[in-house]
Write a structure and sequence with these properties.
Elements lengths: L4 E7 L4 H13 L2 E10 L7 H12 L3 E6 L1 H7 L33 H15 L4 E3 L15 H11 L8 E3 L7 H11 L21 H13 L8
Parallel strand pairs: 1-2, 1-4, 2-3, 4-5
Helix pairs in contact: 1-2, 1-6, 6-7
């Protein structure tokens, strides 16, 4: 473990990627304080927030915050299936090839909004580093999970004249299977993560993120504890 560094804010949804990220930042950066930040934005799979709280306690963060911003879901529901009020979440097989680059589960400007809020929060706390769990999707893609997006949002934040905040996405070039392997090495309890966009009692196994998760575990050579 590295020597203790300045503080960090980690966006923690309760999903696989952000959970592995939280463990990774805690182990490799040992920041003080380490703050995990979750958002309730009207997502159908809001049950992920309970797993976020559990993982934050498991890591031993200094502070875990759940910020209610449901108005965002209300504003963008016409353009995404991921929030209440939007169209139904499709199976991955029903998403056309042309739509995979920006599927119906994309939430308009979500990452830009959440990262802007996180950057403001970090700046107010005199913390300079914010982390989020962007990764290189296998089956579909989001423009706000790319290296280009990361570079450009940091270019904007660098205009700050006093306390510039930097956004970090250490997994932006990694596939999900790599995160599964990394998480296993760190002892991450993947049973306390949630991925299914439909947010039922059990994963649906057919929505885009369920398929991606299943394939990632298979590629990494492990069984998904949620699906077997």
């Amino acid at each position: 473990m590295s020597d203790q560094t300045a503080g960090a804010v980690v966006l923690l949804s309760g999903g696989m990627d952000s959970t592995v990220l939280l463990h990774h930042v805690a182990r490799t950066q040992n920041p003080s304080p380490l703050i995990s930040l979750s958002f309730s934005y009207g997502q159908r799979h809001s049950k992920e927030l309970a797993d976020a709280e559990w993982q934050a306690a498991r890591v031993g963060v200094d502070e875990h915050r759940v910020t209610p911003i449901e108005f965002i879901g209300e504003l963008v529901s016409a353009g995404t299936t991921l929030v209440y009020g939007g169209a139904a979440v499709p199976d991955l097989d029903d998403v056309t090839k042309d739509a995979l680059s920006q599927p119906p589960t994309y939430v308009p400007n979500r990452n830009m909004m959440l990262l802007s809020i996180a950057a403001a929060f970090a700046e107010a706390r005199d913390i300079h580093d914010v982390y989020y769990g962007a990764q290189a999707h296998d089956e579909y893609g989001y423009w706000d999970c790319t290296a280009e997006f990361l570079e450009r949002i940091n270019n904007v934040l660098s205009l700050n004249r006093r306390k510039a905040v930097t956004i970090h996405a250490p997994f932006v070039a990694d596939k999900k299977a790599s995160l599964v392997r990394m998480g296993m090495e760190m002892g991450v309890d993947f049973e306390r993560t949630w991925s299914c966009y439909r947010g039922g009692d059990q994963p649906c196994a057919t929505c885009p993120t369920c398929v991606e998760r299943r394939n990632a575990f298979a590629e990494a050579g492990f069984d998904d504890p949620l699906c077997g």
